[in-house]
Amino acid sequence: MIEQTISDISTLFERSGNDAYFGEPVTQLEHALQCAGLAERAGADDETIIAAFLHDIGHLLPPDMAGGYMDGYGTVDHERLGADYLRQRGFSEKVAQLIEHHVNAKRYLVAKKPEYLARLSEASLKTLEFQGGPMTVDETESFEKNPYFRQILQVRGWDEQAKETGMVLPDPIHYLEKCYNHLESRLS
C-alpha cells in the first residue's frame, strides 16, 4: 500500500511536474521542491514539510478527478482535491489540513493585510477570483480557530516565495522518502 502510494505520487510528478506552474516562471516540480525546501530550512516538522511539498498535488491529478479549471491557472478546488487524495492514502489529518487550507490562507491574508494583496503575482491575483476573493469577517474569525492556523499561514508564505528561477533543488526522492516514513509511522 505505502509503496504504491509513493509510486503514484512519483508518477504524478513524472507526468506533470515539468508543466509550467500557472503564470509563474517555474515548473510544478520546481515549485513543490522550493516550497518544501523553504519549510525544511525554517525547521518545520516533517508533516509540514510534506504538506509544503504536496500542497499543489491537486493540480497534478488526472483531469477526470478535476471539477473544472481556472482559465489556464490550474484546477478548481485543487487544495480540497489534493487533501482528499492524500487522506484516502493514509496521510495525517495535519498534512491534509495544511494542504486543504493553503488557498484559504491567501484569502485570509488578502482580507486582513492590504499589503499582502499588493505583493501577489498576476497569476495569484487571477486565481483569487476563482477562489472566492477575500474572506468575510465571519470567515476570517472561523479560519483563525483552525488548530493548524499558524502552520497553514507558514505553508502559504512558502508557497508565495517558491517561484524563483535557477535554484539548485534537492532530488524529489528526499521528500518522497519523508512521505514514505510518514505513512509507515502511521501504521505502527
Automatic annotation (TrEMBL):
Keyword Hydrolase: yes
Family matches, as SMART domains: HDc
Protein name per its UniProtKB record: Metal dependent phosphohydrolase
GO molecular function, one term: hydrolase activity
Keyword annotations: Hydrolase
NCBIfam families in alphabetical order: HDIG, Phn-HD
Domain of life (superkingdom): Bacteria
Pfam family, one: HD
Gene3D superfamilies (alphabetical): Hypothetical protein af1432 (1.10.3210.10)
Record InterPro entries: HD/PDEase_dom, HD_domain, HDIG_dom, OP_Dioxygenase, Phosphonate_degrad-assoc
Coiled coil location: none
UniProt key word Hydrolase: yes
